[in-house]
Fold Cytochrome b.
Amino acid sequence: MSTQHFSKPARVLHWLMAAMIFAMLFIGVGMVASVSERHQWLINLHKPLGIAILLLVIVRLVVRFTHVTPPLPADLPSVQKLAAKLSHVLLYVLMLALPLVGWAMISAAGDPVMLSSSVRLPALLSADAPTFALLRKTHTYLAYLLFATVLLHLAGALFHAWIRRDEVLKSMLR
């Protein structure tokens, strides 16, 4: 297997999850911008999409640890290599934490986490208003952090494509 490109499963999962995460960020903004009942469909979309992201990030971690990944360019400054590694770790942590915190938050609100009209997830916590309030703030701040990290990730990809003109972005495209 070539180490110049990510494996096909890694690339498919990367781009699928990128689309899902962008959708989730915009859905989340739409949800908090209005408490109207007309926006209930956003909540009904947000919950199963969050659980799908949770499941896919687990699959993605398995793929990450079982497939060879291309190395960063040898001439990349060590501080940039460290930033790349830390930002990837942060992305994975956030992709795991946000759905789990959201699930726990809904559980603490005393509401069911419905994936469809007939599929209900078990509550992670018992209903408790102070816990719900804490988890809601945590979920919000983690979402902001995810948004900022995604922007930095995108900026890094564009930096490699447009400034350094190296193979980093291409390794995820083909």
About this structure: Residues 91 and 149 are 7 Å apart (CA to CA). The longest strand covers residues 113-114.
